[in-house]
Amino acid sequence: MAKKEDKDLMESGAKVKLGTSDKIIRGFGYVFLTLYSVCCIVPFIIIVSTSFTSESVIRAEGVQFLPKDVTLTAYNMVTKSGGIWWSYLVTILLTVVGTAVGLSIISMTGYALQRKDFPFRNAISFFIYFTSLFQAGLAPYYLLMTQTYHLKDSYLAVLLPLLMSPWLIILMKNFVKSIPHEITESGKIDGAGDMRIFVSLILPMLKPALATIGLFLALGYWNEWYQSSLFLSSRVAVKPLQFTLYEIVNKTDALKNSVAGQFINLADIPQESVKMANAVLATGPIVLLYPFVQKYFISGITVGAVKG
Amino acid sequence: MGKTKTRVKSNYNSSLTFFQKVKKYRVLLLMCLPAVLFFLAFSYAPMPGIWVAFVKYNYRDGIFGSKFIGLDNFKFLATSGKLLSLTKNTILYNLAFIILGNFLAVFVAILLNEMRSKWFKKISQTIMFLPYFISQVLVGILVFNLLNYDTGFVNGILTSLGLERWQPYSNPNVWPPIMIIVYLWQQTGYNSVVYFAAIMGIDGEMMEAAKVDGANGFQRIRYIILPSLKPTIVILLLFALGGIVKGNFGLFYNIVGTNPILYNTTDIIETYVYRATMTDFNFSTASAVGLYQSVIGFIIVMTVNFIVKKIEPDYSLF
């Protein structure tokens, strides 16, 4: 509150007296930030434009900033087979289930590890934190997942590894820290057990934390392609959205790089516009949603910035 | 008041045996159990598998049945110069990312703070944050869309200006700057948030006093904002340095992919390990490189934490 007043004071002060150097800085700031913002958004506009451009125009003139004549051919091709809707379904299911399960585990752990009277808190914190200091590496991980856990071609191989990370647990701990210890104490005096205290007293106060960490988890699931590329082979019929996109890109590359003289069916090469329509469909929901949830990410970054 | 209470409690705890403590805190322990099992299953369970780096792996005999060859996998990597070139690429890219990334983030945060129009601030911050939210797959597509030879946006402009077409995908030397620009493009919105929050936390009275004393805009930035940001900058730089041998796999793999022409300047430890595992199924070599990376990374983090503890104990990791 006080900070806000200071800010207003500063602003009113700035209006009263505006030196030359302030004008220079402000002018430069407007120009620089505008140009920078344009750079951030132009690639997206090109993708959307290309997805609405006919393939012949792209072949002849390259991708366009604005589509020459709007056509929905690419979208019709993408949605015709219906495969993309199944990918949506898989991605949404992974995102919802993963976020819900991950969030419950992270919040329980975060609370328990922040309880000052819990004698095992340091040991368990270190057990979790150590995994971000030293990792076994990809090859042993891959062998374990495929040969011991037999998770090749299973959606669990995508769902499970993304449930939590040391960073998210530390972030939750930092959020829990701001809840006064007296709340737990009062619950104890009323005779509530630890689980009861957590569910009915602590969780309602953790709403902003749950939103922030839930959104980080959901973003991770939505944008997931890495675990899929490790564990989902062609035997899995429906792939998550981003991995579908990844496969389309790689198919194009593979066909283009294949040895000259080999017979290539042009119809097999995914067209640029189809690629872009896929990209728009896979990314659209996030781009539309993120302005509304941006503040939660910002609070997550500032709360978890340093002790990370 | 609260403090005495905790002390009494911890004294009480210390008189309990281990099993009594487990019994008393069984609910809290159960609350931690899923997370502990998770890290056990996905982070600790792979660790014995590191052994694969010391054997000549074959499928039939498995990790622990394959022939033990000691450090031969490492020797091969070291003598072929592979390890050195991968390390060099990884570290140089990270140095550029860290230094330029933080510089640009501070720069953007300071400029944002100087803006007085609320909606301009809000909209530009939102737009700059956008690239952070998209998948690395899409980043790869964006770059290809801009730069490819046949249909790329840049080549479209070059052609319309009557200039020669540019062919970056067959020229390894142009990639370091491209990778750095793409990294900055994707991360600056995110990175500047921390600095922006730190600037907002600066005492408003101090700024006001400086203004009354006739400090101009440049002086306020030079003598108030930058010194106030110094601890944040130093700590973030140090932590970033702790991860200097860890590459940004998603970025490099989605932009460069499996294009061997560009490996010389773009192959980092992660991309090499990924190809060795997923394309060549050479688990022993992949694991040797991975172990080398983990050990070096561990040593660097410990060193960094030691330094942070010396200068700012509150910020140290442990």
Short characterization:
Chain A is mostly helical and 308 residues long.
CATH topology title of chain B? MetI-like fold
Radius of gyration of chain A (Å): 25 Å
- The percentage of residues in β strands of chain B lies in under 5%
CATH architecture designation of chain B? Orthogonal Bundle
Helices and strands of chain B, in order, run as HHHEHEHHHHHHHHHHHH
Strand neighbour order, sheet with most strands of chain B: 1-2
**Tally of domains of chain B:** 1
Distance between the termini of chain A: 27 Å
Q: What is the tally of beta strands of chain A?
A: 0
How large is the count of helical segments of chain B? 16
**What is the overall number of helices of chain A?**
15
Uncertain segments of chain A are: 1-10, 12-16
Mean pLDDT of chain B: 88
Residues in helices of chain B, as a percent range: over 70%
Kindly report the average pLDDT value of chain A.
Answer: 85
Reading the helices and strands of chain A in chain order gives HHHHHHHHHHHHHHH
Query: What is the overall silhouette of chain B?
Result: flat
Specify Rg of chain B, calculated over alpha carbons: 26 Å
Largest interface: A-B, 122 and 119 residues
Largest sheet descriptor of chain A: none
Assembly of the depicted chains: heterodimer
